[in-house]
Design goal:
Length: 116
């Protein structure tokens, strides 16, 4: 996976904007931070549910990790070159759902249910 792959996933979701954060490429939903590419160009810093984070780290210990900087924040780091597309898609969609307005999330999910 690359940052470009992450962007394709992200911009398919409603109200996602591509921009920058801390001088690196980033995505936001309605102005709220979702994720960014770290300075090494291979690590994604992405928001996650703090209660899910320990489970994610345990289940994907070969791809997901933390540094001391992110230890007390609702974030997880993703080694993109080793990450599978399904995991990254799930992380991006979860970050979007956590940060997007509730009505937008509900409408998106309802539209998805109708198309199935």
């Amino acid at each position: 996976m690359t940052w470009d792959d992450v962007v394709v996933i992200g911009v398919a979701l409603p109200a996602v904007e591509v921009g920058t954060a801390y001088g690196t490429p980033a995505m936001r939903v309605n102005g709220k931070f979702m994720c960014r590419l770290r300075e090494d160009g291979e690590t994604l810093a992405i928001r996650c549910d703090p209660e899910e984070r320990p489970l994610l780290l345990e289940a994907h210990h070969d791809v997901l990790f933390l540094t001391l900087h992110y230890d007390n924040s609702p974030m997880v780091l993703v080694a993109l070159p080793r990450a599978e597309a399904g995991l990254v898609r799930e992380l991006v969609e979860d970050a979007w759902a956590e940060r997007a307005p509730r009505k937008l999330v509900e409408a998106y999910r309802a539209a998805g249910d109708e198309s199935r």
